[in-house]
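Exercise 3.2. Students should predict the tertiary structure of the chain below and write it as structure tokens, then compare their answer with the key that follows.

Predict this chain's 3D structure.
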Amino acid sequence: MNDLDPDLKTINRRTVYENRWMKVHEDQIRRRDGSSGIYGVVDKPDFVIIVPIQNGIVHLVQQYRYPIRQRQWEFPQGGWEDRSDARPEDIARGELEEETGLLADEIQEVGRLFPLYGTVTQSYRIFLASELSMGRRQPDPEEQDLITGAFPVPELERMILDGIIQDAGTVACFGLLRLKRLI
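Answer key:
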């Protein structure tokens, strides 16, 4: 190997689990020093997180998150697993209306992050939605318990600092928007 070779080389891949939302692989790998090992990789489609704000009020959704057995406040987010060709902006607009009933006249992509790149291939694009008006809320069956709430920005900050909001994507999006002075 030379300096341009990858640090880990895939020798073999075995899919150990698959459903509509993910594939789990076990890869046989070779390290730069020649030693071998395994690496677990989860393939998941990318998604979007939408930060809807108007007049200093941000809109959040709360739903039950089965893996942690808790209800959590977070920015609207989601993906279209059945439409891999959809534009991220269209997904953002669709998810916003689906989950909150809000329509955004203005929507701006402000960044892209990887939530767990040590294990998962998935990334998410962050959209700032403004010039909001009411549309028609249409949650998916998996989101039937979803509720919405509107909070002043200082209240959102307090919820983050007090540990009420624990969703890493929501916290990261808020921080990125603050650093870019967009919120």
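Discussion points: DSSP finds three helices and ten strands in the chain. Strands lie at 8-18, 23-31, 36-43, 47-54, 57-65, 70-74, 77-78, 102-113, 124-134, 147-152.
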